[in-house]
Amino acid sequence: KVTDFGIARAINATNTVMYTNSILGSAHYLSPEQASGKPVDGNTDIYSLGVVLYEMLTGRVPFEGETPIAVALKHVREKVEPPTRYN
């Protein structure tokens, strides 16, 4: 059951994730726009759906980190490994 779309975002929308130190929801499904504190639209949900699909295909989320902030920053700064690397 998917229930996290649209709630994984920085708590204070005027700051970026790098400055809030708090994330509401799961950072694993954040879009780069959400992680950067930029305006979001329907593409944000498509990105999150892509993360779910990636997890279904590989058995893992695209980015791991020690903290939610570290995971969010990886969505902005790093490229994801192709799913074929795992299957």
From TrEMBL:
Enzyme Commission identifier(s): 2.7.11.1
Q: Name one GO molecular function term.
A: protein serine/threonine kinase activity
Identify the SUPFAM superfamilies for this entry.
Answer: Protein kinase-like (PK-like)
Please give the catalytic activity noted in the UniProt record. Answer: L-seryl-[protein] + ATP = O-phospho-L-seryl-[protein] + ADP + H(+); L-threonyl-[protein] + ATP = O-phospho-L-threonyl-[protein] + ADP + H(+)
The residues covered by the Protein kinase domain are 1-87
Keywords attached to this entry: ATP-binding, Kinase, Nucleotide-binding, Serine/threonine-protein kinase, Transferase
Q: Which PROSITE patterns match?
A: PROTEIN_KINASE_DOM
Q: What InterPro entries would the database entry show?
A: Kinase-like_dom_sf, NEK_Ser/Thr_kinase_NIMA, Prot_kinase_dom
Q: Which Pfam families does the record associate with it?
A: Pkinase (PF00069)
Q: What name does the UniProt record give this protein? A: non-specific serine/threonine protein kinase
Upper lineage is: unclassified sequences, metagenomes, organismal metagenomes
